Amino acid sequence: MIDEGEFILLTGPTGCGKTTLMRLFNGLIPHFHGGKMKGRVVVGERDTRKVKPRELALEVGMVFQDAEDQLVSTTVEKEVAFGLENSGLPRSTISKRVEEMLAGLGLSRLRRSFIPELSGGETQKVVLASVMALHPKILVLDEPTSQLDPLSAEDLLTVVRRIHEETGTTVVMSEHRLERCYHYATRVLYMEEGRILFDGRPEEVARWCGERDKAFIPPVSRVFLKAGWEEIPLTVNQARILLQRHACMNGDPRKDRDGSSLPQPQEEVARAKGLWYVYPSGTEALKSLDMFLGKGEHKTLMGENGAGKSTLLRCVLGLLQPSRGKVSLFGEAPRPERLPQLAPRLGYCPQNPASYFTRSSVREELIHTMQLRGQGGRGAVEAVDEQLRRLGLDGMADRHPRDLSTGEREKVVVAATTLPPIPDLVIMDEPTRGLDYESKQLIMDYLRDCKEGGSTLLVATHDVEFASGLSDRVAIMGDGGMITDGPAAEVMSDSLFFSPQVNRLLGDYRQGVIREEEAVAILREVRPR
After folding, report:
1. Domain residue extents for the chain
2. Counting Cβ atoms within 10 Å, is residue 396 exposed (0-12), middle (13-18) or buried (19+)?
């Protein structure tokens, strides 16, 4: 039961049923999605089995995990106004609410932008604005920050929290990046295999999860648990207060980690020089950008939504042709006609995994990828089965990819992208969308093995914790250009927003701390005895 005015956070492994549960609140189940349903769901005093979703739309506003599926208009302003117009609200009310949402979510500069040319994060913010403009009594958010840059995610959650606190709106949200929102919740529900296993206050659930596998709690909580502390903070501020109370960080900060720059590889895999890309609408996505990617590097691109990260990846692959400047891939200019010959050497994980699938089962999808690389027969089948097992997908090999959760689909694309023989270059656009902590760790371990095999990796992501655990180098983009490019420990240590929780906690004490294992070692040193 959810009481009016609560802030409920749903957490649990990828594919545990969070999205399915959320679809019950607005009647999408059973009226739209197939399957069998037992029991009932009551919103207010209305049984959702007897009320159509359109009748619940003003009461229950939902943002889908795949925000692209909710778009119906051509421009941002029209999209935000669409639901209000369908509700028959006065023009003055519509204009006021549209302006309010555009300003509140930082979309004013995009009001007349063509929606297909927006980045994934910008698209997600547009959908959020269109739902929140309806002022629903219940706001259902399915991973609302999965494609947002760190600052946009903080802004969004601040708006959601204000709406919750100042209007009494009930919020039900699922999220895997728990460092952003765990402390906002009044209750946390932990799910596994379609069941709610624990329901309690955030600190209660953190303690319960900590006694099990430590996966479904914020990173700052996890490192304290792993270091053997009795008290478990939920935020960086709580952790700082805890350390100060125990006088653990007194004295001069210790800057004893080697902060010297890593040598940049000399053998070139890809390069951009003076790169410009202008979309047909006139939007300048890339502006005189330079980038070097050396053999064996694991480089992560970060930056705000719309900075040009996805456009850069597509230019490197040859899917987009530069307006000006040069791009080289394996020593030649990338062109669409080269891609078939380069298929065995390239792996590409697109931002929207649903755009990848052409076959009716997960196993067939991976076998098809092997065939495109010129491999078939029993050897290909054995390689596919081993890949499925390694990435924890063997239990869904015969399922249709489109029946999987977003996180499960993302794992399937990663599995297909990195099938053996390991590609020389793997390019990934937001590869952790919808993934829980354990799935991300599994993928990180596998990508490290790929590096040992000589593979080069170029990733665009907003997942700061993933980037810090994986990257050799981090490049931050802004306004279509490259702002900085350097060793991960240097770039992510000198940042307020593009840094992991453990760095914000311990960066003043130990230079260059960006990985959880480093933080655990420090906290063990200073733990009260």
Report:
1. 7-202, 295-323+331-500
2. buried
